[in-house]
Amino acid sequence: MSEQGRTIESVRRANLGGILGIVHREGPQSRAALTEATGLNRSTIADLVGTLVTFGLVEERAPDPSHRVGRPSPMVAVHPRVVAIAVNPEVDALEIAAVGLDREIRAVVVLPQDAVLSPDDAARLVAEQVDTWRASELADARILGVGLAVPGLVRSDDGLVRDAPHLGWVDTPLRDIVAQATGLPVVVGNDATLGTLAEHLFGAARGIDQVVYLNGGASGIGGGIIVNGMPVLGAGGYAGEFGQNRPGIATLADRRARDGVLEDEVSRARLLAVVGLTRADDRELASALTSAAGTPSVAGEIDRQRRIIATALSNAVNVLNPSAIVLGGFLSVLAELDNDALVQAVRAQAMPACGEDLRILPAELAEHRLLIGAAESVFAEVLANPSPA
């Protein structure tokens, strides 16, 4: 192919990806809306949409009956059969979901675990679940791949899990292990980094260009950073490990772990223990904390953790000056017990100019935030370079 031919083809691929990205992020769009959004002419849009239909990535539907002025324009929507398998391994459960390119959760299972899974066991369970779904819910699906949101350090270029301390996975070639078990392309990322992506695209951080995200789960606290609308990954993909920072604790009586890091002090396990639970999802934890908030031991632990997280967040505010901090998991539970007071506590410890417009927001995607982020890591390839099945 000539240089000019390659240039024309690359422009066409970019335009195909642009249209697919719009209907993925914004939902069904009329051809007229796509024409306006892209600046391309109507015949070009018709040709590109036709190609995406041929690829099996979008479908055209009847025009929106609410738009009666002028010639009706067909609606272009992501094809519902296109999905990714999203996986979140935790110390107490393995969560697996089929997430559509249209952002619908096709199926989800949570497999509780009494012992921490090995990488091989996790891969086997994922493969078994995919096989089960292929015989039922996903019988007609086009599965693009598997995305894993792992609570630990993941090398971004090859999916090597350098250290997932709570899982005991060290220098684990997880991408290759899962790919061999499932026969599917695999992408591996840090769970909080992928949660940041999901919340920025579709959740509480949508439209906000300066964001700090912290996720609190069974394996501790991770985070992600958005600067000028772009994720900050770091040299190896390890940025955002807020949970491993040494917390500033003003009162010695507030310390629980000698020389502990933030996630040792601000801990889901400590909250569960103080309300007498061994296992609970975020909704159940929030209910238990609210019901027992008048108990001195529960109130004391809530206040202690909120004081420490406020100091940690104020440090992030001073360094990064975000417009918003988004909290997910049990951190969202802690914040929503009195969000205004937490905002004031953070501002009180931050430089006034850095914190004056700060908002603290709960993650909007709830328990699906990490799964949606994991699916997005798979969808990135087809959005960048749409291709037929």
User: Biggest sheet, strands in spatial order?
Assistant: 6-5-4-7-11
Q: Helical amount among residues, as a percent range?
A: 40-55%
User: What is the CATH fold-level name of the largest domain?
Assistant: Nucleotidyltransferase, domain 5
Q: Give Rg in angstroms.
A: 23 Å
* CATH homology superfamily of the largest domain: ATPase, nucleotide binding domain
Keywords: Kinase, Transferase
Protein name: Putative NBD/HSP70 family sugar kinase
Organism: Microbacterium marinum
Family: Belongs to the ROK (NagC/XylR) family.
Report on this model:
- This protein has 389 residues and is of the alpha/beta class.
- It folds into three domains: 3-64, Orthogonal Bundle (Arc Repressor Mutant, subunit A), CATH 1.10.10; 82-194 and 369-384, ATPase, nucleotide binding domain (Nucleotidyltransferase, domain 5); 206-364, ATPase, nucleotide binding domain (Nucleotidyltransferase, domain 5).
- It has 14 helices and 16 strands.
- It has helices spanning 3-26, 31-38, 42-54, 119-134, 174-182, 191-202, 262-265, 268-274, 282-291, 296-320, 330-336, 339-349, 352-355, 369-384; strands spanning 29-30, 58-61, 75-78, 82-89, 93-100, 105-112, 142-150, 153-154, 161-164, 169-172, 186-190, 211-217, 220-227, 230-231, 324-329, 359-362.
- A five-stranded mixed β-sheet has the order 6-5-4-7-11, sandwiched between helices.
- β5 and β6 (105-112) form a beta hairpin.
- α2 crosses α3.
- The longest helix has 25 residues, at 296-320.
